[in-house]
Amino acid sequence: MEYEYLKELNNIINTFLNLAETLLRDGVIDTKTYMDITNKKKEFLRDIKNIRK
What is the pLDDT of residue 29? Predict the structure, then answer.
């Protein structure tokens, strides 16, 4: 169950990152905003690893 939840959560995060990349390419968001989004993803993944320990 936990594995399926994390797998689905990862799919959602990747979809959001793809959207952010498209928005950056289309000029809707700036590079700083995109970098903030990717940094938050890294923090989130670190937090999940800590929770699983």
Answer: 95
Contact 20, 29 (CB under 8 A): yes
37 and 17 Cβ atoms separated by less than 8 Å: yes
| For the chain, domain boundaries | 2-52
Tens-digit pLDDT profile for residues 3-53: 788 888 888 988 999 999 999 999 999 999 999 999 988 888 787 777 765
Q: Which residues contact 25 (CB under 8 A, 6 or more apart)?
A: none
Taken as a whole, the chain contains a residue count of: 53
Q: 33: closest CA among 52, 22, 20?
A: 20
The answer to whether residues 21 and 34 touch, using CB atoms and an 8 Å cutoff, is yes
